[in-house]
């Protein structure tokens, strides 16, 4: 658990510093950064591994971004990330969040990562990627990625493409590709991702999200 302890200390220092920032006198108190909490849970049963539930929790305060994952890098493995979000653009909105993560459990390591959020009208591209430096076996270093490219068909339905690269998926290809369907209703979201359609390696992932 040493990687998680190191990152937890870093997160504590960063969040404490952010909490102690002085709000300029000309900024109303209501506009000061507040904590925002969201989360998702993914269920999947891909080739080459056991079925699993992967919960992911997010905490944001202004540009400060914290993230916790379980069963993502490996089964029975937790990860904690801390990052900083940079936003730019209006008509074409871009968000970049470089992060540093610590992984502990069945796999232990350090994982620098990046999340990208790009939006233009009804088009949206989201990508998350990380490179895991395994602390126990260098040959087990691995690049993970997951991304969606979707179009807003209605105010509540998005559809498009999804790709995934994970050590927990064992097929004849290194990158899994499929279709994405995302439904939102208020603060709740439901998603279906269907990979490798028409092949013996087809599988689906369903997800529930909460974003108040």
Describe this structure in words.
- This protein has 212 residues and is mainly beta.
- The chain has a single domain, classed as monomeric porin ompg (Porin).
- The protein is 8% helix and 58% strand.
- It is built from one helix and 13 strands.
- A twelve-stranded antiparallel barrel has the order 1-2-3-4-6-7-8-9-10-11-12-13.
- The chain starts with a helix and ends with a strand.
Write the layout of secondary structure elements.
Layout: H1 2-19, E1 35-44, E2 52-61, E3 64-70, E4 77-84, E5 86-88, E6 92-105, E7 109-120, E8 123-134, E9 142-152, E10 157-165, E11 176-185, E12 188-195, E13 203-210
Antiparallel strand pairs: 1-2, 1-13, 2-3, 3-4, 4-6, 5-6, 6-7, 7-8, 8-9, 9-10, 10-11, 11-12, 12-13
What's this model, at a glance?
This protein is mainly beta and 212 residues long. The chain has one helix at residues 2-19; strands spanning 35-44, 52-61, 64-70, 77-84, 86-88, 92-105, 109-120, 123-134, 142-152, 157-165, 176-185, 188-195, 203-210. Strands 1-2-3-4-6-7-8-9-10-11-12-13 form a 12-stranded antiparallel beta barrel.
